Amino acid sequence: MSKSAGRLWPLYLGGFLGPFGSPIVTTMVPELAREYDISVALASTSVTSYLIPFAMLMLMSGTFAERWGRKRTVQLGYVAYALTSIGCALAPNFEMFTLFRILMGASNAFTTPVLVAAITDLVPREKLGRSLGMFGAMQATGQAMSPLAGGVAADLHWSLAFYAIALVAFVLAALPPDNAKSPFTGSQKERWKALANGQLAIASIAAALSFFSLMVVAVIGVLYLRDEFGTGATVTGLILAIFGITGLLTGRWSGSMMDRYGQLKIGGLAHLVFGLFASLVGVTALVGGAVGLGLACLLLAVAGSASTATRAVVQQLAVTSAPANRSGATSVMLACQFGGAALAPILWMPIYEVNHVLAMLTGGAPAFVGGLILLLVWRMRGARPAETLR
Q1: How large is the greatest C-alpha to C-alpha distance in the chain, in angstroms?
Q2: What radius of gyration, in Å, describes the C-alpha atoms of the chain?
Q3: Which residue in 217, 220, 209, 218 sits closest to 336, CA to CA?
Q4: What span, in angstroms and rounded, lies between the C-alpha atoms of 171 and 273?
Q5: Which end of the chain is flanked by fewer CB atoms within 10 Å, N or C?
Q6: What is the pLDDT of residues 209-260, one digit of tens each?
Q7: What tens digit of pLDDT does each residue of 171-220 get?
């Protein structure tokens, strides 16, 4: 293993851990409701309570990390992530559980954007798409494996999942990224000014739309599978894990396609495929039974592969949009990305309660719109490199 590859793997594992902690509660919502004697609807807010502070702090966390130093920022972020995970496991009531989920999301805001910037410093530009594709694959795997882990833990005791997260976070705290290769010597005002560019705006819009659809799959999809096919927590988590496994298997390939054909073209197509196949999961209600469940697995596999590509695209667009503030640009994009994810349960749960099939059939629409936007920009800009979009 090369020295560069050895330094990348802790960053990739960090990419897995962040998304893993967010939807860990999706397959244990009924168990949380019983544990704290609350409604399922109230228990489901534990997803949003993580995402909202995460998204809000993302707007500034990357810029502050560049000022404080990437290494120190990530180390403190991981330690806080571990301690708040333990707090969730030990919470005596739902109010305290929610508080620790809020703090857990806030802690993660100071790790993920810094990892993307660190990868950009470690790999040559012509291989950046492939490396970010792998990072996106690890993120998608964490996002998809989380419901499985949560489901397995729920069948034993849901708190075990949070102890496992804490253990991994403590390990990663000992393996932080290096500080920026070429520290920015300008003023803090110039750091913020670097974020005002069109490329970052496009990346942020596409990220918000694709992650809205991703969270519909993660939250509404879990409930849909359990209600429509009667799957238990572990089986449901295993089915959704397919979403991440295919992303892991194809992440490097989709990143290479970006390097070869351009972020906008590949990104637009990936968003369209993700949106279409995520929505088609709702069609499985018409089939029903084992065949319908098998079809759902196939659709989620394709959607998972495309979703991983959408992650890599928006990350590369963002991190290359502001060389003077790579962490800051990534954090702004991620703020929009997870802001979209936070809105999904709030806006789609009422639809689900009225008609769960309709909720799934329309869940992929935001990602589809994101694809149309990227392809429109690609057509307008022609074959120029993405970096010229500013």
Answers
A1: 62
A2: 19
A3: 209
A4: 36
A5: N
A6: 999 998 888 788 888 888 888 887 778 878 877 887 888 788 888 888 888 8
A7: 999 988 877 665 555 666 787 888 889 999 999 999 999 999 988 887 88
The secondary element (H helix, E strand) that includes residue 160 is helix 159-173
The answer for residues whose C-beta is within 8 angstroms of residue 171's C-beta and 6 or more apart is: none
Quick check: helix, strand or coil at residue 60? Answer: helix
CATH fit for domain 3-178+185-389, picks 3.40.640.10, 1.20.1250.20, 2.40.110.10, 3.40.440.10: 1.20.1250.20
Task: Answer for the pair 348, 366: CB distance below 8 angstroms, yes or no.
Answer: no
Q: What is the DSSP letter of 196?
A: -
**Cβ atoms 255, 365 nearer than 8 A:** no
Give DSSP secondary structure letters for 217-283: IIIIHHHHHHHHH---HHHHHHHHHHHHHHHHHHHHHHHHHHHHH-HHHHHHHHHHHHHHHHHHGGG
Which residues make Cβ contacts (< 8 Å) with residue 379, sequence separation at least 6? none
State which amino acid sits at residue 270. Answer: A
Those residues with Cβ within 8 angstroms of residue 166's Cβ, 6 or more apart along the chain or in another chain: 81, 82, 83, 85, 86, 89
Distance of CA 157 to the CA centre of its chain: 25
The one-letter code for the residue type at 64 is: F
Tell whether the torsion through CA atoms of 326, 327, 328 and 331 is positive or negative: positive
Separation between Cα atoms, residue 92 and residue 63, nearest integer Å: 36
Distance CA 241, CA 218 (A): 10
**Pairwise CA distance, residues 222 & 217, whole Å:** 7
